[in-house]
Amino acid sequence: MCLVLALCLLLGANALEPQCINYAPNRFEYEHNVLEKLVYLEQFKTDATERIAAQVQQLHTVLGKLLYLEQFKEDASEKISVLEKQLQGPPTHSPLTNSTQSPVTPRSSSTYVHWGMNTCPNVTATTMVYSGQAAGGHHLHTGSGEYICLPNDPEYDKYNQNNDENRSLMYGAEYETHAPITNPPALSDLHDHDVPCSVCLARGKTTLMIPGRTSCYSGWTKEYQGYLMGEYHSYQGKGYVCMDKNAEALNGTDADLNGALLYFVEGRCGNLQCPQYLEGAELACVVCSITI
Ligand SMILES: [Ca+2]
Ligand SMILES: [Ca+2]
Question: Which ligand is closest to the CA of 265, given by its number?
Fold first, then answer.
């Protein structure tokens, strides 16, 4: 027993372990050890707090130096940029730039309507924005706008479902390609069918519809080609669109409802320069793109 007690006393603070207490019933020594340990812990806490405060101060100092270096780096980069521009000399002007433009022209994109199809051409990297239905004013109404591509998933804000008097009117468009007379032998099977359309995004490109051509000029890429189409010559005009030569019918409908209509466009010589243009010939068209 004495040997165990001596061993516990030699262990100091560790003598507080329960198995030792069982062998050291001296309450004074026990409380003395507890107090000693509390004093030790209090001192340890004070020392630790001081060390943490010192390290926080060091971190603040390092952070301040980092901020200074970051600012120094930014200032140096600006100075280097200015020196590089001075070394390059004044900007050279080309037909596509002028003194008000940035030396680096941001890339732009363009959209076009692919008439007659519910897909976008895959000859270039186009993205379809939406597909829909060709539409416009009624062919007998004088108050109408150009052909437009209405999306298949319309949304409305405020509306009523009365047929009000004071309104502009919108009708779906249909092909007037006069089957079974196949002259020219194009799109005749689509007569009286409704017309699909798609709006296509050409990233980093500009696009152009060229009437009267089946191919693009040098440097341009053909998106699609087709036939120029418009409203019947004695009806209210809606402009011209380029209908894909492989145009399709929308939903197979051929109800002959005659809302907005789409006819081939043929030339009449006179002011129209012939023989480059051909009397009575249906005009072609092509949609071209070029990277800019
Ligand atoms: Ca019709
Ligand atoms: Ca003709």
Answer: 2
CA of 127 to the centre of ligand 2 (A): 35
- Which pTM value belongs to this model? 0.64
DSSP E strand boundaries for 152-202 = 171-175, 196-202
Ligand 2 centre from 119 Cα, in Å?
29
Residue 141 exposed, middle or buried by CB count within 10 Å (0-12, 13-18, 19+): middle
What are the boundaries of each domain within the chain?
A: 2-83, 110-151+169-291
Cα of 188 vs centre of ligand 2, distance in Å, is: 14
Distance (Å) from CA 194 to ligand 1 centroid:
9
* Ligand closest to CA 195: 1
Structure tokens at 36: 């000693």
Q: What is the mean pLDDT of each run of 10 residues along the chain (292 residues)?
A: 44 47 68 88 86 78 68 69 60 41 68 97 88 96 92 97 94 88 80 96 95 98 97 94 97 86 96 95 97 88
